[in-house]
From TrEMBL:
KW Oxidoreductase (keyword) present: yes
Pfam families in UniProt: Epimerase
Family, as annotated: Belongs to the NAD(P)-dependent epimerase/dehydratase family. Dihydroflavonol-4-reductase subfamily.
Assigned keywords, A-Z: Oxidoreductase
Protein name: NAD-dependent epimerase/dehydratase domain-containing protein
CDD domains tied to this protein: AR_SDR_e (cd05227)
Annotated region described as Disordered, given as residue ranges: 281-300
One MF annotation (Gene Ontology) recorded for this entry: oxidoreductase activity, acting on the CH-OH group of donors, NAD or NADP as acceptor
Domain of life: Eukaryota
Residue intervals of the NAD-dependent epimerase/dehydratase domain: 4-255
InterPro entries cross-referenced by the UniProt entry: Epimerase_deHydtase (IPR001509), NAD(P)-bd_dom_sf (IPR036291), NAD(P)_dehydrat-like (IPR050425)
Length: 332
């Protein structure tokens, strides 16, 4: 049986990756920060007791954090790295954000090279943040585009997140080029990730940032006025999860970045769909004649993800319905 290590197993995307790995027949080991989180994952998959287990990695940014986790008997064949450093209060952009992001990414690569020679490929969750160019958007966004942010610009707290994702992904590609390890690399670069939350890991207070706009919408936080959309590209979490698994199943995925997006959305479009799919929330939704703030300034090219990984993206209508349904389950 093919064996996979999935880091950050209790994260929003990772929870869906677990489901797909098990469905596809992989023996799966997840890293979590605590026994409690690991036990939640195991209990949620009673049918997979023989194929699912966890190891604890308390701080992914520490030197050698993954050294023990990657050692396994039988050994691992693949690693999916979704874990990202966990902290609340950013005082120092370098110490609190940039260093942990970069070390968290290169740390897993170093550990695999040193202690897991059987691993054939590492797939890393990067982000559209490593692609976007807010100062001068290209005509079409694709995997060929990199965020041009500089280290100096990253000292600005408003830019440090995007910078951390950019520098972390670049560090991963540099590592593979310079160190010539036993594995190749693929990266998954999604924009805003929407979709159903898993009840065993979530409360309404603890849902991922992207899905908070759905919670706010149906709780009436935008009843008087629709909030600005902000970022306009999106993807369903289940498609992102499948992209990670396909990236280890499809040999041609090695050495590639994948821009994973279903296209454009706006808060107005989400509200309109919610009005159709969940009329019980009508009184809490923003006015039906709210202005749609969708831009028309750039395009996107997601063809590589469709051709190489075989992705067929879910519609915004389906994602909105399924996301709201999942929020109702955890107690809207």
């Amino acid at each position: 049986m093919v064996k996979v290590l999935l880091t950050g197993g209790s994260g929003f995307i990772a929870a869906h990756i677990v489901d797909i790995l098990l469905q596809h027949g992989f023996e799966t080991v997840v890293t979590v920060r605590s026994e409690e989180k690991g036990d939640h994952i195991i209990k949620a998959h009673p049918e997979a007791k023989e194929k699912l287990s966890y190891v604890i990695v308390k701080d992914v940014a520490k030197d050698g954090a993954f050294d023990e986790a990657v050692k396994s008997n039988p050994p691992f064949d693949y690693v999916l790295h979704t874990a990202s450093p966990f902290h609340f209060n950013v005082q120092d952009p370098v110490k609190d954000f940039l260093d942990p992001a970069i070390k968290g990414t290169t740390g897993i690569l170093k550990a695999v090279k040193a202690y897991a020679p059987t691993v054939k490929r590492v797939v890393i969750t990067s982000s559209f943040a490593a692609i976007v160019n807010p100062k001068q958007p290209p005509e079409v966004y694709s995997e060929k585009v990199w965020n041009p942010v500089t280290w100096e610009e990253a000292m600005d707290h408003s830019q440090v997140y995007r910078a951390s994702k950019t520098f972390a992904e670049k560090a991963a590609w540099d590592f593979v080029e310079k160190e010539k390890p036993n594995f190749d690399l693929a990266t998954i670069n999604p924009p805003l990730v929407f979709g159903p939350v898993v009840p065993y890991l979530n409360s309404l207070e603890a849902i991922n940032t992207s899905n908070q706009r759905f919670r706010d919408l149906i709780q009436g936080a935008m009843k008087e006025k629709l909030a600005p959309t902000g970022n306009f590209l999106w993807v369903d979490v289940r498609d992102v999860a499948l992209a990670h698994v396909k990236a280890i199943e499809v040999s041609e995925a090695g050495g590639e970045r994948f821009f994973i997006t279903a296209g454009f959305f706006s808060n107005k479009k989400i509200a309109d769909i919610a009005r159709e799919t969940h009329p019980e929330f009508e009184e809490k939704l923003p006015p039906a004649d709210s202005v749609d703030d969708s831009p028309n300034t750039y395009g996107y090219d997601n063809s590589k993800s469709q051709k190489v990984l075989g992705l067929e993206y879910r519609s915004l209508e389906r994602t909105v319905k399924d996301t709201i349904d999942s929020l109702v389950v955890i107690g809207v």
